[in-house]
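Listing S7. Sequence submitted for prediction.
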Amino acid sequence: MVSTFQSNRKLLMKRFLFISLIATSLISCSGDKKIAYVENYKLYSGFDLTKELQGELTNYQSKEQNYLDSLNLIFNQQTNYLQSLEEIPSEDYASYNEFRNFLALKQKSFDEEVMLKSQEYDQQIWERINTYVTTYAEENEFDVVLGASGNGSLMYAKEDLDITEDLIQYCNTKYGGE
């Protein structure tokens, strides 16, 4: 689950890099602009919706993994039973192969579902964050809010320009309905 979130986050960070480069170009062309930056990962991780959806994904994974574990236990019991026989009846062997294929299909389906849910949740999270950042920037009269992702898109900025903590609090307040 975490690795899927991380891989999706990397894709989104590339988008932020592009936006950051555009913003940097705009800044170099302008004079007295109110500029700040936010640590993308920290904002994403500190956002209550992220925690909520990661919890849902973890619960889903746990429930489905328990089901798959039960199927694997049955499969292992069948394997042990068939290995104990001197001669395996063709009906039992066919049933065994059918169950093995079913189990493999269930595992593949589970993995795909987790990946899709993770992508869907990431999209929901970033859409909400982007909306809140826009509102926050407008309310606080920022001309530019840069996203720092630790990949070189923002190499340096004074700490007093960092609004990450303020944005985490703001996003969580907005998400909480206040």
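Caption to Listing S7: primary sequence and predicted structure tokens for the chain studied. Residues 148 and 155 are 8 Å apart (CA to CA). The helical segments are 2-29, 40-46, 48-84, 90-139, 164-175.
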